[in-house]
């Protein structure tokens, strides 16, 4: 163990960490934008649309993320129509390919999580929304989706942490995020143990912070479901008196 090397390498590793966080944030935002309409379509769209979305989700959940990265990074460039399109300046960039692949991957998992959460929304709340004259779209926007997001948060927190770890695969297409930076330093110093232990510690700290933040958000969003102890005691006392 060489603590001096670990400390010396820390600035470069933290710079790579910043790129990992950029990849994670971009992928999660884009993935969520894709997942919400897919989750709704799985429940409301015609059968052919549901079948297409089900195939998409099965493909991205059933194939390795590394293979998906290679298909996007090396595969798309094989088509002349893509190389001649306006998207080529973006698609030829490793960073864009990584974000696109991560977003498509997490969208499949998130859509499944949201679909289950939407189905778990109490039927009484949906019926009340329709009874108030809300259209289907308004009911989703005002009642169903906010409730579903709260229900989905614990499972989505696991997905966020999984995607954090998955960003390490971006190093396979020359992106110098945390793992890629560690690999580069290892090639120069021949000290894999020190570098990868430090990188693992950084991943662990970030995962702990993300988990704590999402649990705090879950706790905050569920405040209205928790009656204060004093209120609960009063309610119990009133019920006892009435009995």
Automatic annotation (TrEMBL):
<dbReference type="InterPro" id="IPR035906">
    <property type="entry name" value="MetI-like_sf"/>
</dbReference>
<comment type="similarity">
    <text>Belongs to the binding-protein-dependent transport system permease family. HisMQ subfamily.</text>
</comment>
<keyword id="KW-1133">Transmembrane helix</keyword>
<dbReference type="GO" id="GO:0006865">
    <property type="term" value="P:amino acid transport"/>
</dbReference>
<feature type="transmembrane region" description="Helical">
    <location>
        <begin position="195"/>
        <end position="217"/>
    </location>
</feature>
<feature type="domain" description="ABC transmembrane type-1">
    <location>
        <begin position="17"/>
        <end position="215"/>
    </location>
</feature>
<dbReference type="InterPro" id="IPR000515">
    <property type="entry name" value="MetI-like"/>
</dbReference>
<feature type="transmembrane region" description="Helical">
    <location>
        <begin position="20"/>
        <end position="41"/>
    </location>
</feature>
<dbReference type="InterPro" id="IPR043429">
    <property type="entry name" value="ArtM/GltK/GlnP/TcyL/YhdX-like"/>
</dbReference>
<dbReference type="GO" id="GO:0022857">
    <property type="term" value="F:transmembrane transporter activity"/>
</dbReference>
<keyword id="KW-0997">Cell inner membrane</keyword>
<dbReference type="InterPro" id="IPR010065">
    <property type="entry name" value="AA_ABC_transptr_permease_3TM"/>
</dbReference>
<protein>
    <submittedName>
        <fullName>ABC transporter permease</fullName>
    </submittedName>
</protein>
<keyword id="KW-0812">Transmembrane</keyword>
<feature type="transmembrane region" description="Helical">
    <location>
        <begin position="53"/>
        <end position="76"/>
    </location>
</feature>
<keyword id="KW-0813">Transport</keyword>
<dbReference type="Pfam" id="PF00528">
    <property type="entry name" value="BPD_transp_1"/>
</dbReference>
<dbReference type="GO" id="GO:0043190">
    <property type="term" value="C:ATP-binding cassette (ABC) transporter complex"/>
</dbReference>
<keyword id="KW-0472">Membrane</keyword>
<keyword id="KW-1003">Cell membrane</keyword>
């Amino acid at each position: 163990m060489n603590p001096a090397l670990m400390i010396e390498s820390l600035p470069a590793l933290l710079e790579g960490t910043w790129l990992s966080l950029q990849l994670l944030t971009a992928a999660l935002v884009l993935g969520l934008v894709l997942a919400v309409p897919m989750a709704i379509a799985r429940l409301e769209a015609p059968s052919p649309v549901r079948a297409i979305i089900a195939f998409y989700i099965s493909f991205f959940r059933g194939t390795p993320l590394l293979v998906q990265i290679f298909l996007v990074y090396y595969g798309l460039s094989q088509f002349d129509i893509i190389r001649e399109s306006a998207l080529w300046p973006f698609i030829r960039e490793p960073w864009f390919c990584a974000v696109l692949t991560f977003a498509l991957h997490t969208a499949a998992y998130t859509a499944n999580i949201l679909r289950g959460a939407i189905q778990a929304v109490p039927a009484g709340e949906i019926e009340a929304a329709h009874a108030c004259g809300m259209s289907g779209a308004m009911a989703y926007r005002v009642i169903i989706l906010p409730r579903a997001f709260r229900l989905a948060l614990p499972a989505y927190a696991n997905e966020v942490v999984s995607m954090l770890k998955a960003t390490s695969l971006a190093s396979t297409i020359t992106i110098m995020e945390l793992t890629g930076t560690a690999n580069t330093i290892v090639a120069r110093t021949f000290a894999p143990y020190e570098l990868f232990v430090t990188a693992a510690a950084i991943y662990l700290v970030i995962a702990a912070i993300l988990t704590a933040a999402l649990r705090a958000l879950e706790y905050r969003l569920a405040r209205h479901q928790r009656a204060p102890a004093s209120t609960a005691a009063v309610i119990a006392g009133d019920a006892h008196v009435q009995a």
